[in-house]
Design a protein that fits this description.
The chain has 2 domains: 68 residues, no CATH class; 108 residues, EIF_2_alpha (Alpha-Beta Plaits). Helix content is 54%, strand content 14%. The protein is built from 10 helices and 4 strands, in the order αααβααααββααβα. The protein has a 4-stranded antiparallel β-sheet with strand order 2-3-1-4. Helix 3 runs antiparallel to helix 10 and helix 5 runs antiparallel to helix 7. The chain is elongated and about 85 Å long. 28% of the residues are buried. This is Lipopolysaccharide biosynthesis protein. Keywords: Membrane, Transmembrane, Transmembrane helix.
Length: 221
C-alpha cells in the first residue's frame, strides 16, 4: 500500500474525520482576532477624532392676504432646496465667519411635508461656530424671502434661533469601539466563509488488471 492510499484511508476513518473537523474549526480564530482589531481601531478613531457639534435654526414661511397656506408650503419646499445657493450668494458666510464652501459642506436643510417650516442644521468642531453657521444661513433665507415677497406673496421669518449645543453629535469612543468590533467580526467571518478549501483527492476504486486470455490447446491426431 502506498503512502497516498494510506493517507486516504486515514481521512476516511473515524480519527481522520475528527482531525478534519478540528482543522476546519481551527480557522475560526480569525473571527475573535477581527473583533479585537475592529474594536481597537474604532476606539482609537473615537478617541482621536475631533468632536463635532450640531446646531439647528428654524425658518417659517407665512402666507400673506394675497395667497393661501398651500402656496406657503410650496415656497417652503423651494426655499429648502435652494438654501445653500442663497447662503453662498448672500451674506451668510460673512455672518458665520466661514467660506461658502464650508457652508455648503456642513449645512443641511430639511423641510416638513405638512408645515411650511425649514430646519437649518450646521455641524462644526466648534459649538459657537455651529450656531453662527445655522443662524447665518437662516438669516440669509429671511433676507432673500423679504426681497422676493412682492412676487411670492409670502413672508419668510426666523421662527427659532439656534441653541448652543452642550454635547457632541459624533460617536463616543465606546460606541465607536462597539461599531468597529461588529464590523471586524463581520469581515473576519466573511473571510472564513469564502476562504479556498483544500481539495481532497478523489478516491478511485482500483481497476483489476486484465487477465490473460487462455491459450487454446490443440489435440494431437
Amino acid at each position: 500500500m502506498t503512502e497516498k492510499e494510506s493517507g486516504r484511508r486515514r481521512e476516511g476513518s473515524w480519527p481522520g474525520r475528527v482531525l478534519a473537523r478540528i482543522r476546519a474549526l481551527s480557522v475560526w480564530w480569525i473571527v475573535p482576532v477581527g473583533v479585537l482589531i475592529g474594536a481597537l481601531a474604532g476606539g482609537a478613531y473615537g478617541t482621536l477624532r475631533t468632536p463635532q457639534y450640531s446646531a439647528t435654526s428654524y425658518v417659517l414661511v407665512v402666507p400673506t392676504d394675497k395667497t393661501d397656506p398651500a402656496a406657503a408650503l410650496g415656497f417652503a419646499q423651494a426655499y429648502g432646496r435652494v438654501a445653500s445657493q442663497v447662503a453662498a450668494v448672500g451674506d451668510a458666510q460673512v455672518w458665520a465667519g466661514v467660506s461658502a464652501k464650508v457652508l455648503r459642506e456642513n449645512v443641511t436643510t430639511v423641510t416638513s411635508p405638512d408645515a411650511p417650516m425649514i430646519s437649518v442644521t450646521a455641524t462644526s468642531s466648534g459649538r459657537q461656530a455651529a450656531v453662527s453657521m445655522a443662524d447665518g444661513v437662516a438669516r440669509s433665507l429671511v433676507l432673500n424671502g423679504t426681497q422676493m415677497q412682492g412676487s411670492t406673496n409670502v413672508r419668510v421669518v426666523q421662527f427659532s434661533r439656534a441653541v448652543k449645543p452642550t454635547s457632541p453629535v459624533s460617536p463616543s469612543a465606546p460606541l465607536a469601539a462597539l461599531v468597529g468590533a461588529a464590523a471586524g467580526g463581520l469581515l473576519a467571518g466573511l473571510v472564513v466563509l469564502v476562504r479556498p478549501k483544500r481539495r481532497r483527492d478523489e478516491v478511485h476504486a482500483p481497476v483489476p488488471a486484465p487477465s490473460a486470455a487462455p491459450v487454446p490447446q490443440t489435440e494431437s491426431v
